[in-house]
Amino acid sequence: MLWIALYLPQLACEACPSRPEPRLTRAAHEALAAWAGRYTPSVSIESDCGLLLEVERSLRLFGGLHSLVGALRADLAAMGHAARLAGAPTARAAWWLARSGTERLIDRAAPLAAALAALPLTVLDCEADTLETLRAIGARTLDDVLRLPRDGLARRFGERLLGELDRALGRTPEPRRFFAPPARFRARLELAAEVGEAEALVHAAQRLLVQLGGFLAARAGGVTRFTLTFAHRAGRATEVAIGLVAPSRDAGHFTLLLRERLARCSLAEPVRAIALAATQIVPLAGDNRALFHDRVSAAGHWPQLVEQLRARLGERSAHGLALAAEHRPERASLAGDFGRSSITADFGLRPLWLLPEPRPLAEIDGVPQHDGPLKLLAGPERIESGWWDGDRVARDYFVAQTRERSLMWVFRERPRAGSDAAGWYLHGWFA
After folding, report:
1. 366: phi > 0 → left, psi -120 to 50 → alpha, else beta; which?
2. 183 with 126: CB under 8 angstroms?
3. Rounded distance, CA 345 to CA 13, Å?
4. H/E stretch holding 133
């Protein structure tokens, strides 16, 4: 096994004026544990100031130990955490190395004892009386303790101290309880000072978005909507809901969408805290990668483009088209979500551009005119509908060609009692 320890000094137990409350510390730990699940499903919360990750089975996925540690450091920096990282074949040894500031990556058992020998006694999870007694007999490092007779250590300090040493050296196993991510993601960030500028808010919120991305990766899921709540000193909080066309867990894309939204959002007051919530998690498989990189055949990123347009111009700035249960062409489509049409129909030839209203065409000897006579290539397609709602149509549609060989969609209104709308009309263009 191979363990990576993440020791977070800013969440350490030492009393200081800026230490967060225990409730907030626990919430911060759980949010970080959920993020760490993107690297391994075996994540354990260590006391109240760090995490332990068992990463043996993740090394090939992330390109080796050093590559994985580099990715961990990059994510931690993006979330604003200055963590100490260390690796060892046992969880206890990795934690002692990180806690002492010895940021070493030991992936074999042979050099482990020598690496631990130089560590100070303060890495031990012992009572103050035990540490004081060890110092009184001249012990300053773990090597000094390991040189003492085991029987004497057991009689004077009990089995707990020996048990810790044995677990660190791999002589006895150390059971760990692994973190189970919650069904929903919620995280909150208290800002050190009030922030009123959009770019500064994006930078702060990015910490939460990186956590969200890791949480979703751990659950093999994505979101189509998440909400950021900006708390002010006084007055009602500002909510910014961001919707996506397709499920995603890309923290970089989330940050881009938030930047676009905040650029056109005016905040009444500076912000003191940011909360992020994603309550509807949907399954999302990872992308398949080709053996050879081929940008021509690579799938396009049109959902991200649509989401960016909506974030910049408004939710209604871009939408899909859906079919309606209607034969009248002007009513056969409606605005809807992308790729979510539940009606299928085969209407035959339809133009790409449909005019908002049919345009009357001149007629000479029964032939429709548009910069000259039109040549009818296909038709008629008879559409007769709407007698039940007072907007009855009775038309014969044709595909017509102009002198410039452009293709038009025209129809002849069939005369009916009480109507003078008979004649030729242009309704759309094929090209």
Report:
1. left
2. no
3. 66
4. helix 128-136
Contact between 84 and 2 under an 8 Å Cβ cutoff? The reply is no
Task: Tell how many helices (H) and how many strands (E) occur in the chain.
Answer: 11, 17
Token reading at 229: 């709540």
* Rg, C-alpha atoms of the chain: 34
- 3-class DSSP state for residue 216? helix
pLDDT at 277: 94
pLDDT, tens only, 290-317: 555 555 444 556 677 777 677 666 666 6
- Spatial CA neighbour of 149 closest among 139, 100, 39, 419: 139
Tokens 């970080």 found at: 32
Which pTM does this prediction carry? 0.66
Strand boundaries in 218-270, DSSP class E? 221-232, 238-248
Residue 386 Rama label (left phi>0; alpha psi -120 to 50; beta): left
Eight-class DSSP state of 149: -
**DSSP state, residue 396:** E
89 forms beta bridges with none
| Residue 169 · residue 161 · CB < 8 Å | no
Q: How many C-beta atoms surround the C-beta of residue 365 within 10 A?
A: 5
CB 411 within 8 A of CB 384: no
Tell me the C-alpha distance between 160 and 10, whole Å.
28
> Token digits for 392?
């009855």
- pLDDT tens digits along 129-138: 888 888 898 8
Q: Which residues have a Cβ under 8 Å from the Cβ of 207 and sit 6 or more positions away?
A: 78, 79, 80, 189
Through-space distance between the first and last CA atoms of the chain, rounded to whole angstroms? 65
**Distances in whole angstroms, Cα of residue 264 to Cα of each of 199, 256, 304:** 12, 13, 19
Q: Residues 114, 126: contact at Cβ < 8 Å? A: no
Where do the domains of the chain lie? 3-169, 185-283, 346-429
List phi, psi (to 5°) of 134. -60, -40
DSSP characters over 167-179: HHHTSS----PPP
d(CA 279, CA 345): 36
Helix-helix angle 91-100:159-169, to 10 degrees: 90
Element (H, E) at 411: strand 407-413
Q: Buried b vs exposed e over 58-75: b needs ≥16 C-beta within 10 Å?
A: bbeebeebeebbeebeeb
CATH class in words for 185-283? alpha beta
